[in-house]
Amino acid sequence: MSSLDDILKSRRDTRHFTTDEVPDEVIQKALQAGHWAPSVGLTDATRYYIIKSDEVKSAIKNLFLDYNKKAEALTDNPEQKELYKSLKLEAIEEAPIGLIIAYDRSVLNQFTIGTIGSNEAVKFSSVCAAQNIWLSLTEQGYGMGWVSILNYFQFKKILDLPENIEPLGYFCIGKPATNYGNQPMLQQLHWKQKSETADSKEINEIHQINISGFDLKTESKIDKKTDFASLLQEKIDSKTKPVGSLGTLETLAFQIASIFETLDPKIINPNIVVFAADHGIANHGVSDYPQDVTRQMVNNFLEGGAAINIFCKQNNIDLSIVDSGVNYDFPTNTKLIDAKIAKGTQSFLHVPAMSETELQLCFEKGKSIVENIAEKGSNCIGFGEMGIGNTSTASVLMSILTGFPIEECVGKGTGINDQKLLNKQKILEKALENYSGQAELMEQLAYFGGFEIMQMAGGMLSAFENKMLILIDGFICSTAFLIASKINPNIMKNAVFCHCSAEKAHLKLLEYLDAKPVLNLDLRLGEGTGCAIAFPILKSAEAFLNEMASFESAGVSRK
């Protein structure tokens, strides 16, 4: 072939191969073409793994076949099911060579021009490498087929790929057994017709983004509904016990009934939502854990292995996991709520963490998530979080919104030592000194905020609007509540602060909010675990109010 156009037109996603061997010089020439592909910031992040072993190929094929059945079940169209079955995976074993093209996430741990604005650029570089390899093989008379990976976790596990290596896909390489009628295979099978020309449009004007936000509300007097409150208090006091003897349970029972506006309140379909995101400030050594732990823990949530999974299962609480802005692309077949704003915030040590548009999107997405839960019949929602570096974000936000000195708002987070704590405090002090923006709430939130914290704040506001019982976890969640309370002070009447964490600043923040926590167990895990652990106490408050005998019904004399 002499013409680039001919090579481009004849490149096919090859699915059927001959048994001809692929000479080493062909593979080496193709890999060199891949290496010549653009590399963002010269990171050289693309990695290649060659597979010739029949045993390894067979294991990979079996893994793919298992998930192929699940993919087939995704369509209800019988014709499409049959067409899907015709897409065999024999090529994995037929092809003489298997190739894994991957990118190395560890390059993101260094400051690299080109990856700061978008971490996805590293992946895009590897995609360019894959295309170069494809074209080189085509020019040499060979073919390559891309098989999408449906289960990254097991795929990486059976091949013992390092944690930082992220495969784009599994590629089959060999001599094509057919040219598919000189057209893409899916088109030959009448699955999909490829358009003749590229879809191209010219953009010649700018459209403004208009996203409705939450208006600040001034403190207002809450209607007391005197008659209802008196009846409710009388019901509590008339139970067969000394007045006030159930302590906090009586306070909770009164609160729950008041929120649900009924003398016979019932918690229905409780749900804990864990919002996860990455933070640019984490790149400055404020945590003992690398940023990638956020992604690893989200996978742990999805696999059911985290503390919050266990406690929710124990107490029959639904659990929802939200990707608010994790620095990772999760497979689309995971049970994950996709609310990603971006792949982590920027570092507020030097620049705003997010734009004001991103801030508004956070509130909108948090609101939408909670509204969807409320529409499914839930009247009780707990908030949890996951994000390496988010105690630093919460500390700065607490300092700004309460006026407390930053040293009173900084704690050990994931358990850093005293020297790292001092360094963390100095970094956050420097970030506050560098801030030269306005003293307006929304500008401050955009400059220092985290995606998951702002989505929680928006979700809490939505929960209040939907008359839900709002369960608040530890320090980070309490900071999100602080933000929500600055926007709508009335939200306080719906909030239950489930525990006082071991994070130093949490007690001070609870005192600022005039909040009395239900538990004090020295927890500092996050994830919403405090909400799940405190939930049985709320059920006890509900149970005594609804089921405990009154003096009158039991024939017991009052004092």
TrEMBL record:
CDD domains: DMB-PRT_CobT. It catalyses: 5,6-dimethylbenzimidazole + nicotinate beta-D-ribonucleotide = alpha-ribazole 5'-phosphate + nicotinate + H(+). It is an enzyme of class 2 (transferase). Gene3D superfamilies: 1.10.1610.10, 3.40.50.10210, NADH Oxidase (3.40.109.10). Keywords: Cobalamin biosynthesis, Glycosyltransferase, Transferase. Residues 8-175 form the Nitroreductase domain. GO terms for biological process: cobalamin biosynthetic process. Its EC number is 2.4.2.21. It comes from the Bacteria. GO terms for molecular function: nicotinate-nucleotide-dimethylbenzimidazole phosphoribosyltransferase activity; oxidoreductase activity. The active site is at 527 (proton acceptor). It holds the Pfam family DBI_PRT. The keyword Glycosyltransferase applies. Pathway: Nucleoside biosynthesis; alpha-ribazole biosynthesis; alpha-ribazole from 5,6-dimethylbenzimidazole: step 1/2. The keyword Transferase applies. PANTHER family: NICOTINATE-NUCLEOTIDE--DIMETHYLBENZIMIDAZOLE PHOSPHORIBOSYLTRANSFERASE (PTHR43463:SF1). Belongs to the CobT family. Catalyzes the synthesis of alpha-ribazole-5'-phosphate from nicotinate mononucleotide (NAMN) and 5,6-dimethylbenzimidazole (DMB). This is Nicotinate-nucleotide--dimethylbenzimidazole phosphoribosyltransferase. It comes from Flavobacterium johnsoniae (Cytophaga johnsonae). The gene is cobT.
